[in-house]
Structure prediction request, 1138 residues.
Amino acid sequence: MTEDSGMKENIVCPFCGCLCDDIALSVVGNQITDNKNGCSISQAKFLNHHDDRLAMDSSVEELVKKAAEIIVKSKRLLVYGLSSTENDAHREAYKIAEEVGGVVDNTSSVCHGPTILGTQESGESIAALAETRHRADLVIYWGSNPQFAHPRHMSRYVRADGLFIKDGKKDRKIWVVDVRKTISAGVADKFVKINPGSDLEIISALRAIARGKILDVEEVGGLSINELTELVEAMKNAKYGVLFFGLGLTQSKGRHRNIDAAIRLIQDLNYDSKWSMMPMRGHYNVAGANKTSTWQTGYPYAVDYARGYPRYQPGEYTAVDMLVRGEPDAVLNIAADPAAHFPRAAVKHLAGIPVINLDPKQNMTSLLAKVNIQTAISGIECDGAAVRMDGLPLYLKKVVDPPEGVLPDRDVLRMIYDEVRRLKK
Amino acid sequence: MSKQTILTNGRVYDPMNGIDGEIKDICISDGKIVERVDGSAKKIDLKGRLVMAGGVDMHSHIVGSKVGVGRAMCPEDHRKDPVPKTKHTRSGVGYTMPSSYVIGYRYSSMGYTTVIEPALPALKGLGSWEELEDLPNLDSGLLPLFCNSMITFNYVKEGDPSGLAAYIAWILQKVGGLGVKVVNPGGTYAWAHGVDLRDPDGEIPGWDISPREVTRGLCQAVESLGLPHMMHFHPNNLGRVGNIETTIAQLDSIRDIKGHGGREHIAHLTHMSFETLGSVEGAGTDWGDLASGGLEFAKYFNKNKHFTADMGQITFGPATTMTGDGPFEFYLWQLTGGKWANIAVDVELAGGAGIVPYTYSPKAAGNSVQWAIPLEFALNVDDVWRCIMSTDHPNAGPFTKYPLVMSWLMSKKQRDTWMEGMHKFAHERSTLPTIEREWSLYEIAISTRAAPAKILGLEATKGHLGVGADADVSVYDVDTTKVDFAKDPDRIIKTFSTSYLTFHHGQQMAKKGKVNASVNGKVWSVHPELNESLWTRINKELEVMMNDWYSHSFYNYPVPERYRAPLEQKIPVDSTSVPA
Amino acid sequence: MSRVGVEALLTSGRTLKQGRAMELGKLGPEYLKEVAICEMDKVTLEALGLDEGDPVCVETLHGSVLVTSKIDRRAEPGIVFIPCGPYANAVTGSDTENTGMPDFKGVSAQIFGAKGEKVLNVKELLKQIMEGA
Prediction:
């Protein structure tokens, strides 16, 4: 790194699950003036980090006191979010939930939670990104639109040349499977359009055909048996295949059953070839939230501490279900925007209870929160660790100072924890 | 003011200092064992209770990505074993893959104080350091994997032992590792090419080198660097009937390698139970042909002194198999048909580490023979200093079953009882029923304390109770002059399941099995210092290779100090004699 | 508002502009412009008698929301798209079938032309939800 010239290199971008770590920033004084290599979202994130910050109506100390009072008064605290902050913040959040017997859930319950449920049925053959670049001669994106959600995923890991794939553009085939022709479908070698909600049937049919079964139908989910058979043949003939899948698979009809079926299909393909898969994790550290939760509690999300020990039950201790049932009487929200991303019925309950909101920026949740505490942006204004979509941990650097008096999430959470302990005595 | 404690009237078993059940006082000052303490020291009268050094587990999978994936995909593993928070401890869950805090607490309550994680994909080191901060009450260390890395292959192929040694030194320093782990060298990598490579003399696809050459290269590199712990070795062809031949061939292939400074042992063979499967004479290699290779391997072990071994004892009941040997797990999954996870790792473990939940049954022919193998071995070795008790947690069973394993080692009566309901193959295809030997407490103390500390190179401060050692002490509630363990195996299990007292660095961790502290231990790492020209060369070469091959930058590879400093205990090693 | 509607499956997801706008400010005009829209094919828009940019009302079992119409040249009739965010969620069901995951994709919807009506901004939308409308 060449700090003197104001260039900071090999910076990790804290936006999506790709965690691109080749970002080069020009920094003048405490201002980031240029972002080399980043995608357009990365540009917006780094260059506009000062804008639109969350307003605080008193000092952090006062707000921490208010937050702790709400938490101590509550009977059923929901701690939510965590996917857009670094790992140490998670660890502090679990401590608070454990201390007061609350529930802690991260945003994976509304993104790749079904993926986790699928792995709990069947396991998973998990891919790695450099391995994809070096080896994969067939890459499938299913229900995923990387050009929009993970803008450099294709160029960095899939279209790029690799050790055994000399020409990433010619020697590797990319398929997109989706219900509509997305921008990613437009740049793929093959677009497979399927009927909405038919993923489970199609995957099951592919698996049956791969196992040599004869299907007594003409088409499944909008694809003829011939088309399906061709897909299976190509998949079996690939030397090294990788399936990337997105919310088109986890959020549509069938949910975790879709994933379970996909896992079994990919596992089976290993008899003939080498296949693995990877969820396209959205928020840059949602994979980290699953990981920290798992090592501390044994469970990746949807954890309830009411009995003094962690219990796990998606559908019960997941945030949307909790809110729709009207169960939490307070919410500690960290680095997420549930008001913007939850269904109407969940937002309605959220709006009626005290919400403590930790975030660098204002958003829909901050509009309804009772206590808003502005925090530093991990990976720009404070350091920390995050986990890439393939499980690789990366160190996020502090590039510039946060606005005056603004602390990292982990510090604010530690203060809240200490204050909760003090009040409970 | 220094913090002093004196434990009086303990019956001490301390093999490193030749003490075999003598009544002695143990003096503790500032976390160390000392000659004497002054009158103000806190005095605890042990009234003849059994005293050993804190337990040292040199092979137990306690942190890292495979443990995390395993925990996350098996909620059913934890549900029935909740662990509530207490005034002093955090909550969590147990069973074969306990949550991080609970691992620390359960070891504490059993009297263990040092546990080594034996399989780290080095590029994921940061995650393990983070996790170790939430794993209290133990000293630990990480063993990075070098066996399926393209960088290793590159140096072996180029015939550049200095480059290989320097790569190892760089990783150990930058990531913070305690030693070198080798798992199915070349075999896991080959699997990424769709090749099932189990022959040590086969070709690693695309590299024109064999697993044997990789194994030798890594073993030589460890000795040339003079690392305290020798190569930690899981050979090719694991878990297959008749693989004792491969294992012996591989051990033979490194026998001529000279130990650093003349040391005798140059490899540690881990979980020998999975590597010494014999087959019935004249039969093939189907599971129906399985026979114990324990005795045959003990004979080899007694004759060939260049290696040590741990048992990997199958304990029956639920386990979770997890290993950097991905192709083995794929094979095992085909036998179980249940869950299977595989974790491909960029460049360093292309084929991937695997995870398969598994339940060992005494009624199953194969499992019953597998159970007999390590016992037959351990009861036939002539040198317990080279034979370590382990369950390869959680592969052959959780570490919480150690007391049960001790009871099998210490009591023929216990073995007979267990064999009563067992599949007949355990009787017919092993010599275990005829073995009379019963391990003594002294031997238990060697195998669970002194020997692992020595093999890890930590014997200055670990595994014993001599002056200068860390004050890691476990006290068990038994007067060994009044019980006959061999006749009362239940008493063995009761005694060793919960310590009476556990001290770690002089601080009380547990009393009567109740954990009353939650504090970070130390994490050992070795720092081999290279001569300047070699250090310069390796940095240049690794920058090129890593930036070419990895999906993240050479500059983002090291684990930052901020995550290490609170825990790390660096062991400097002078490796400047490795030529550039 | 016209009561002649078009039936379609409503789906939601990420867009590049939505991602960028999120980083520029989630209460700002840019974000509104990127998430308070409904993308559809040209035929559907024409069937509604609308020009691109006219407001449409999207109704599902779970509620209704006003957004700006937009043509997606790649789209085909039968599927319409609202970028993920508060407008999509205003018409999303909350039943997770015990998985934690609500129905974000593939909700049956009816689309109506809503010329002359005003698309609410994020604050107004939140107020509407809080008041239970």
Observations:
- Chains B and C do not touch (no CB pair under 8 Å).
